[in-house]
């Protein structure tokens, strides 16, 4: 199983998740729902970015990974 990378930028209000190496990014495609799909040169989705993502002040951001 590869490494899943999750970045939260509170100032920029973005949540970015990478399924593969971020350096493989070739194109980013907006979906229209404040989500940007990040793709490699072959068109495979290697990550996504959620715009305007805000965590309430009284909440913590937690990540749970489950391998199936």
Q: What value does the Rg take, in angstroms?
A: 13 Å
Helix content: under 10%
SS element count, helices: 0
Which of globular, elongated, flat, extended, rod-shaped describes the shape?
Answer: globular
- Any idea how many domains? 1
Strand order of the largest sheet: 1-2-5-4-3
Cα end-to-end separation:
10 Å
Question: Helix- and strand-based class?
Answer: mainly beta
Task: Estimate the mean pLDDT confidence.
Answer: 89
Binned strand content = 35-45%
User: Which segments are poorly predicted (pLDDT under 50) over 5 or more consecutive residues?
Assistant: none
Helix and strand sequence:
EEEEE
| Number of DSSP-assigned strands | 5
Quick synopsis:
By secondary structure, the protein is an all-beta fold. Helices cover 0% and strands 38% of the residues.
Key features of this structure:
68 residues, mainly beta, five-stranded antiparallel beta sheet
Description:
- This protein is mostly beta strands.
- It has one domain.
- Helix content is 0%, strand content 38%.
- It has no helices and 5 strands.
- A 5-stranded antiparallel beta sheet has the order 1-2-5-4-3, with no helix packed on it.
- Strand 3 and strand 4 (35-39) form a beta hairpin.
- The chain is globular and about 40 Å long.
- 6% of the residues are buried.
């Amino acid at each position: 199983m590869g490494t899943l990378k999750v970045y939260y930028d509170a100032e920029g209000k973005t949540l970015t998740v990478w399924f593969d190496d971020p350096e493989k990014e070739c194109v980013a495609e907006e979906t229209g729902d404040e989500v940007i799909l990040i793709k490699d040169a072959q068109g495979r989705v290697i990550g996504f970015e959620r715009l305007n993502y805000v965590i309430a002040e009284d909440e913590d951001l937690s990540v749970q990974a489950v391998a199936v």
